[in-house]
Specification:
This protein has 18 helices and 47 strands. It is of the alpha+beta class and 921 residues long. It has a six-stranded antiparallel beta sheet. Helix 13 (619-628) crosses helix 14 (643-668).
């Protein structure tokens, strides 16, 4: 009976969908998403996939039809490479009625990437840029008859290759690099086409040269104009009691030049305009040759009528809805049979705040580089964002995007950098960033490459920049634009062999970014600074667009990676004014590999090696482990059953320690070195593979992400051994408000005992708002020597308490020697007990309360579910990789458990500790 009911509902839904997509009977201006039943096939008709809806991509459709296996499993990145080298056709039947509408426009918001677009036998046009919106006049074919809407996709691999083949003429140099390193298993010449640059492979991701309709296709019906974009610039103006809101409304009236006359009306819900503000503006002008017209107007509101928008951790994220209404002049002058077709409206959410990128001169001859929001200097804490999926049609998945952004917010981040080799993100992404207080450093989509400057390439790039900046600009979370990622430093440091023809490549760089991209950004977003690259020297006056040293720590931002000095050693980190990339690799959890249950250890080695795209391979990971930790006894060439589980644990611990150490040095040296930003590389992943991420693909937190809650905590106690072998202690506070007073306890513990062997207390430490206080530089090694204690046998635990209430504010630890030198190798006898477990069938979330018990202190307790629980998703422990210097510790485990089918028991959780690996040695 249930199956019959499901079938009936399916048929009913199908009929409704067909009917909705046959005709538009309403006479209102309308946008109709063409969520048709699309038919996909390859050009030769070998593979036929019916009944597909949008968004869609060929890889996804083939997977869902079980023609190919999952792109993300085993070696399918190579096994399915033929997909991206095949031509594909999307077909759907379309019937529409123009009726009395003046304009019927077919708008393609995102086509990936090269497609000829037909309606019936008519070629509407061709697409060549996946980031560009394409519009076609189809009014003449909207007569009620049925036409086939057809998109014939050409292989992006073939298109890139063909563009490279016609370039070698006497006055042209190759666009470098021509191909990724062989170990990426990628494709060549991605820099010649306007497609997600990472889709041809990257050092953290697979090649997936996708094709498809990754954003909506819409029929737009109207008789006057529609509102495409609303640009908003909010400033304090010349008076202290008003916000000035400069609005530019971008209207569209068909696709050719037209006379437009009417009225725009503005309203901010629940907020009155200040006296003297005119809420309407009359329009009487002609559109340009593309049917576009920009109308500017200024609004004013009293500052006491609204609340400020703040980044995460500094205050509330107050947002307001700005409503814009268009009404054609003919509505009032002549009685119209269908006046709604002459009207349009749009709502955008805005925030009242100021963001300033401050770069004032300093006494050391350099310049500061920090963001001031509402005139408060912000220490930017966060990460770098890559697309949430390697397949564009999946990258806008609302639930997963929300999960990742909430994970960033909950780790106390206040900034994310949208990296330039990915995508201009979904509207949802920016809305969530607004709501969560995540400032956005936004690269434009150029990364790690030289690029061409031919007229056709520049034309589509300008369209791309114009459209996307206009779409994104009004969001209060967006703080700064950068025209590219690492292209300046690549040119200056000869990453790709450009040195012999530096002047030519330099001129191309200036042509693309300075003469073309930069003016387009500034014209469409007058409110924000634009950096030419990242890293860069910012607005250093002697830059000449390509600095002598784009990584100069006295200017702008830097990207810092170290793979062969001991990353656990704080003394090697100096930082720059703003560190916009830094990080270290680790392996995903053993249980995250789908193959872990079926592969022999040597098979898993081969797969992990295949997915390691760093040109340096695993060696940096192994080097850091050798510096500080005991390596597993067996080898990758002859691994035993515990090799990979142990090595994965050690890699995640090492990554967490490196990023913790580096980040905390940057936070502590805010006043010393002027460091005001720490954005580690990278937040998320696109497949299960060795990478720099803190969150694995699918949502599992690595140890690093669990630790970030403390590393980025607004009130934090930072401590490390500095270059003078002193124990440097700093109280860090990012919050605002009155002064706070802390009592700080320093305890020296011997490994293997719960009690402290020595204590030191700092009473009444005054910690002001939004600052760093150096508490002490303590001769810890001298103290140990005085007590006759060996550093290898001890570590330091610190805690800060609020002086007035005794409330715990922050905790931290310092290792005084390398863990591999620890001599006490007593088994802590860790046991994990399930105290309670509850699952909500409504939310599909299961929550398990655990007790972790130890006989003696345990070092970096690592909890993982067994592979048999792989059906559980996004499992997170409230704490993990922790030092347990108390007999019992409570930990919470939460997982997504569809249908609440799993009952987690103690035997489902594995435990690893450094103690256990030391005992093996």
């Amino acid at each position: 009976m249930l199956d019959a009911l499901k079938f009936f509902l399916f048929v009913l839904l199908l009929l409704v969908t067909i009917l909705l997509n046959r005709h538009v009977t309403s006479k209102q201006s309308a946008e109709l998403d063409l969520e048709l039943l699309w038919h996909i096939q390859d050009a030769k008709g070998v593979y036929v996939i019916p009944n597909q809806t949008l968004p869609s991509g060929v890889y996804t459709a083939l997977e869902q039809s079980m023609i190919i296996g999952s792109l993300l499993e085993e070696y399918n990145d190579v096994n399915t490479s033929w997909v991206g080298q095949t031509e594909w056709i999307y077909r759907a039947n379309l019937s529409c009625v123009a009726g009395e509408y003046e304009y019927v426009v077919l708008t393609l918001h995102g086509v990936d990437t090269f497609a000829d677009v037909y309606l019936g036998d008519r070629l509407l046009g061709s697409t060549e840029n996946m980031f560009v919106r394409y519009r076609y006049d189809v009014k003449g074919q909207c007569d009620g008859s049925t036409n086939e809407l057809r998109l014939h996709f050409r292989s992006p691999v073939d298109e890139a290759r063909a563009k490279a083949a016609i370039r070698p003429v006497p006055d042209q140099l190759p666009v470098l690099p021509e191909c990724p390193p062989p170990g990426y298993n990628g494709q060549c010449h991605v820099n010649l086409i306007r497609k997600m640059q990472a889709s041809f492979a990257w050092d953290w991701g697979l090649a997936a040269p996708s094709m498809g309709i990754w954003k909506p296709i819409r029929l737009e019906y109207y008789s006057s104009a529609l509102i495409r974009d609303v640009i908003v610039t909010i400033g304090g103006g010349t008076t202290e009691d008003h916000w000035l809101i400069d609005v530019i409304v971008h209207l569209e009236a068909g696709l050719t030049e037209h006379r437009v006359a009417g009225q725009l009306t503005f309203r901010i819900f629940d907020v009155p305009f200040a006296a003297g503000t005119e809420p309407t503006v009359s329009v009487a002008n002609a559109t340009n040759e593309r049917g576009e017209l920009a109308v500017a107007h200024q609004l004013r509101v009293r500052k006491d009528a609204v609340q400020l928008w703040w980044p995460n951790g500094y205050g509330r994220q107050s947002l307001y809805s700005l409503y814009v209404h268009w009404e054609d002049a003919a509505t009032n002058s002549v009685k119209q049979p269908h006046p709604d077709t002459l009207q349009a409206e749009k709502i955008v959410r805005i925030g009242f705040r100021t963001v300033r990128l401050s770069q004032e001169r300093t006494d050391d001859g350099g310049q500061l580089f920090y963001f001031a929001v509402n005139d408060v200097a912000i220490f930017a804490k966060g990460s770098n964002w890559i697309p949430s999926s390697i397949l564009p049609e999946r990258s806008y998945d609302p639930s997963y995007v929300k999960f990742l952004l909430y994970a960033a917010r909950d780790a106390h981040m206040n900034m994310l950098r949208v990296w330039g080799g990915g995508l201009y993100e979904s509207d949802l992404f920016y809305r969530l960033a607004d709501e969560l207080g995540l400032l956005i450093w936004h690269d434009l989509m150029f990364a790690c490459s030289m690029y061409p400057t031919e007229a056709g390439f520049v034309r589509t790039v300008r369209d791309e920049v114009r459209q996307n900046v206009r779409r994104i600009q009004h969001h209060p979370s967006v703080a700064v634009w950068a025209t590219n990622n690492e292209n300046e430093v690549a040119l200056r440091q000869n990453w790709y062999g450009t040195e012999a023809n530096f002047s030519v490549y330099y001129e191309q760089y200036v042509e693309l970014y300075v003469r073309q991209v930069l003016p387009e950004v500034e014209a469409n977003d007058p409110s924000r600074p634009v950096l030419l690259s990242s890293p860069s020297n910012g607005d250093h006056p002697s830059n000449d667009y390509v600095a002598a040293n784009p990584q100069d720590p006295l200017y702008g931002d830097v990207h810092y990676y170290n793979y062969f000095l001991d990353g656990w050693n704080a003394a090697q980190y100096r930082g720059g004014r703003f560190v916009s990339e830094y990080g270290f690799q680790s392996f995903p959890a053993y249980t995250s590999w789908p193959e872990a249950r079926s592969y022999e250890p040597l098979e898993l080695t081969r797969l992990i090696n295949h997915r390691q795209h760093s040109p340096l391979g695993h060696e940096p990971i192994l080097t850091m482990i050798r510096f500080n930790l005991p390596l597993p006894a067996s080898s990758p060439d002859a691994p035993d059953a515990s090799y990979w589980p142990d090595l994965i644990y050690l890699s995640q611990l090492s990554q967490a320690m490196i990023v913790k150490t580096e980040t905390e040095v940057y936070r502590a040296r805010r006043l010393v070195h002027g460091t005001m930003g720490a954005l580690y590389w990278q937040l998320n992943d696109v497949w299960i593979a060795p990478s720099w991420s803190s969150i694995e693909y699918g949502g599992t937190f690595k140890l690093l992400h669990v630790w970030l809650r403390q590393i980025f905590a607004p009130d934090h106690l930072v401590t490390f051994v500095n270059e003078r072998r002193q124990l440097e202690i700093a109280a860090v506070r990012d919050t605002l408000g009155a002064d706070d007073r802390w009592r700080i306890e320093l305890r020296i513990h011997r490994y293997g005992t719960f009690g402290a062997v020595d204590r030191r207390t700092y009473e009444g430490v005054t910690v002001g708002p939004n600052t760093v206080v150096t508490v002490d530089r303590y001769d810890i090694y001298g103290r140990l020597a005085h007590l006759g204690l060996k550093p290898a046998d001890h570590l330091v635990l610190l805690a800060a308490y609020r002086q007035s209430s005794g409330q715990l504010v922050a905790e931290n630890f310092v290792l005084l020697d390398k863990l591999k030198h620890v001599r006490d190798r007593t088994d802590p006898a860790v046991t994990v007990s399930v105290v309670a477990a509850v699952c909500s069938e409504r939310s599909n979330l299961t929550s398990v309360s655990l007790e972790v018990t130890v006989r003696v202190p345990a070092l970096f307790v690592y909890l993982q579910l067994t592979p048999e629980n792989s059906t559980l998703k996004q499992c997170q422990f409230s704490d993990n990789g922790f030092l347990q210097f108390q007999p019992i510790r409570s930990v919470q485990l939460t997982c997504v458990d569809a249908g609440c089918r799993n009952k987690i028991q103690s035997r489902d959780i594995t435990v690893r500790t450094v103690n256990g690996l030391l005992m093996k040695g």
